[in-house]
TrEMBL record:
GO terms for molecular function: rhamnulokinase activity. CDD domains: ASKHA_NBD_FGGY_RhaB-like. Its EC number is 2.7.1.5. This is Rhamnulokinase. The keyword NADP does not apply. Residues 4-244 form the Carbohydrate kinase FGGY N-terminal domain. Keywords: ATP-binding, Disulfide bond, Kinase, Nucleotide-binding, Rhamnose metabolism, Transferase.
């Protein structure tokens, strides 16, 4: 019987349980369970449904039992920045607000009253994004100071699921760095900054590194799913897991972790917190084994996902890609990083409005809208690649696109054309693979990251698009 490892990978639009095991030197994946995710309105706040999501986590575990494939360990990864505050009894304080909610509006200015944007970057190396934990906490402090007073613990989303599974409160480093409250030098919470902002020190747990064992299932979970399991922290920030699964060991490439977001950048040994880097709004997120992900957050396929939702998911992504290709000469472009696309009431209308506002031809058909989005994304990739080359003073000859968005063939073609670089697309399940890889490294199935990446390269199909 094979030794299985389980990744529970929860993205902004769906979650999945994926089992991984080694067979004849290759990594084999099996998706055992999948469920929907998305933010929902609670009153006037955009929230995550953590209770429902946790039930889905349990359902997927039961499915493992049902098919007789019980793993030796599991780990959860999710998106970054979001968190819950727990009171002394472990109950969540307030709504489980998500990062697209407008509660952070104006909170950047509140933070900058305490510390300038430049100094904040110098201390944390994290790019300014209005939804970072630092701004969300400022919103809690401003609008619900009672929650901060009652709070005993802050847990980011994957930490919260690990807590529900084991009863152990832990705080994993890669996810914590997306808070903009961690120092890239000490790789620990920046308590001086935390004090300045007036956030209570005690809610920030000691950080653990990916690969750390968190504990075993609680009695309640054990009884419900019918087995016990060790919970091992992967790089719990999904991007951290995805980048661990980039199928290459040289340094001549830029990666794009493509899903709801497109995270485009490099892996580096040290953080660049310089003024130049700050001006380019590049981030230094903490990664596996103390490495840094030096990248830019680009709005990504969220724009296409939203447009698709607005027509009740009538067409699949491949069909939308084909329609976009048919309308490929449509000339208008949008800034894929404009905040107006973060949570518009209607994405289709927002794209049209943007074109109208900027004096460009307004797209009307689905194909035209999609082509505007895909082409604008590809152009944004090209600009970001140039910026990365400029700041590192060297060139990169290929782009590795990993994650679900690597299946968007048309976008890959446009990316190759816009950047002039070879695009290597795949694996699509990079995040789950990275999650499993961290568990396998801990279990010594692999001796090094290099060995793991070689195996990943040999195990999964990678499609090459020429410039
Ligand atoms: C991608 C991601 C990204 C950002 C965003 C909030 O899923 O983790 O790196 O942090 O979500």
């Amino acid at each position: 019987m094979a030794t299985y490892y389980l990744a529970v990978d929860i993205g902004a639009s769906s979650g999945r349980h994926i089992l991984g095991h080694m067979e004849n030197g290759k990594m084999i994946l099996e998706e055992v369970y999948r469920f929907e995710n998305g933010m929902v309105k609670k009153g006037d706040e955009l929230c995550w449904e953590f209770d429902r999501l946790f039930k889905e986590v349990i359902n997927g575990l039961k499915k493992c039992k049902e098919i007789g494939k019980i793993p030796v360990s599991m780990g959860v990864d999710t998106w970054g920045v979001d968190f819950v505050l727990l009171d002394k009894d472990g109950n969540v304080l307030g709504n489980t607000v998500g990062y697209r909610d407008s509660r952070t509006e104006g909170m950047d200015q509140e933070v900058y009253k305490v510390i300038s944007q430049e100094e904040l970057y110098e201390r944390t190396g994290i790019q300014k994004a209005i939804y970072n934990t630092i701004y969300q906490l400022m919103s809690v402090k401003t609008k619900h100071p009672e929650y901060l007073e009652q709070a005993e613990t802050l847990l980011h989303v994957p930490d919260y699921f690990h807590y529900l599974l084991t009863g152990v409160k832990s705080c994993e480093y890669t996810e914590a760095t997306t808070s903009q409250l961690v120092s890239p030098v000490t790789k620990d919470w920046d308590f001086e900054l935390i004090d300045k902002l007036g956030y209570p020190r005690k809610i920030f747990q000691k950080l653990i590194m990916p690969g750390t064992s968190i504990g075993h299932f609680s009695e309640a979970v054990k009884n419900e799913v019918g087995f016990d399991l060790e919970v091992v922290a992967p790089a719990t920030h999904d991007t951290g897991s995805a980048v661990l699964a980039v199928p290459a060991n040289d340094d001549d490439f830029i990666y794009i972790s493509s899903g709801t977001w497109s995270l485009m950048g490099l892996e580096r040994e040290t953080a660049d917190c310089s003024k130049e880097s700050c001006a380019l709004n590049l981030t230094n997120e903490g990664g596996y084994a103390g490495r840094f992900r030096y990248l830019k957050n680009i709005m990504g396929l969220w724009m296409i996902q939203s447009v698709r939702h607005e027509i009740n998911d009538k067409y699949g992504f491949a069909e939308i890609c084909a329609m976009a290709e048919d309308a490929k000469d449509f000339p208008s472009r949008v800034d894929a990083n404009d905040e107006c696309f973060l949570a518009p009431a209607n994405m289709t209308e927002e794209v049209k409005d943007y074109c109208r506002r900027t004096g460009q031809k307004v797209p009307e058909t689905l194909g035209e809208i999609a082509t505007v989005i895909y082409t604008s994304l590809a152009e944004c990739y090209a600009k970001t690649a140039k910026e990365l080359e400029e700041i590192t003073g060297r060139t990169y000859s290929r782009i590795h696109v990993v994650g679900g968005g690597s299946n968007a063939g048309y976008l890959n073609e446009l990316t190759a054309k816009a950047t002039g670089k070879e695009v290597h697309a795949g694996p699509g399940e990079a995040t789950a693979i990275g999650n499993i890889t961290a568990q396998m490294l801990k279990a010594e199935e692999f001796k090094s990251i290099e060995e793991a990446r070689t195996v990943i390269h040999e195990s999964f199909n990678i499609k090459i698009y020429n410039a």
